[in-house]
Amino acid sequence: MFPPLVGLLYVPVAVWVATGFGLMVAFQRAAPSVVLRLAAAFLALWALLATTTLVWVLRNGGWSAVLALLRSPLLLFEPQFAGLWLAGAVGAFLVFLIAFCLNQLVGRGFLHLLRPDAMPWPAALPRPTTATSLLFFESDRLEAFSFTLLEPFDGHSLRPHRHEMILVSHGLRERLEGAELEAAVAHELSHIRGLDGRYLTFLRTLARMMRWDPLLAFLSWSLTRREEFRADYDAARMTRRPLALARALYKVSTSPDARAPRTVTAFLGARGARGRREAVERIRRLVLLADSPEFREDRGAT
């Protein structure tokens, strides 16, 4: 007879598999908010499974327990190990909580160290519907990035609210022409509209915390690449100037900063040689987009 408790332990695995399948289907077709929420759920369940497995292995003999689990994976679902699933859930929650707090601390650290000032919102871009600050900071590097901060209250309500931040360096403002800078800001605005500042930056932080997890690293890279392409397309639609964004990407990707192994040039989506390679692909797509029927009539404005 199949014990009901064992059936309950199988539920997280079944939901995880179903969420993973839904994520694969949505990856190519769905809006970014749907994809990122599915990815967060997928990783939450993955963290539960991984943490529970780790607790089981540590409790049952280390490497010998790993070998036993490889021979009989269903050992985890025996009723006497139900308490380990609870410990795994607590451990997974703590990992996510630490990643969230670290993500928020990094964002606030940027504001504290960079001490940015407000800059005018580009007249040609739509105003965000959520609380959004466009700021610039003193730096010769060609940098632009965005993130989301959770504020405890706004003076009218005790409920926490999100504040979106777009930061642009002085070097980027000086190097880019007006249309190019507008395109760079539109790119970051598209990240905000797609909830990338809420989910993707958090997933990147989690991936950095758990560098040993290849699944998390691959998912973080895949989502980042997808969202950079999508943000480019949305920015081109907002500005009607895909070539302006292509020129901005070219200038940033060929700057000395882009060759450095450590930089916060999130506008490139990645750092170092990989960032430059992906910038080439993004520029190629933008040039093809400018030649498409959707944008061909606007070529004179670029």
End-to-end span in angstroms? 71 Å
Strand order of the largest sheet: 1-2-4-3
Q: SSE order in H/E notation? A: HHHHEEEEHHHHHHHH
Low confidence ranges: none
Total number of beta strands: 4
User: What is the helix fraction of residues, given as a range?
Assistant: 55-70%
As a whole number of angstroms, the C-alpha radius of gyration is 22 Å
Q: What is the mean pLDDT?
A: 85
Oligomer: single chain
User: How many distinct helices?
Assistant: 12
- Name the shape in a single word: elongated
Protein structure class? alpha+beta
> What portion of the residues fall into strands of 2 or more residues?
5-15%
Provide the number of structural domains. 2
* Major beta-sheet overview: 4 strands, mixed
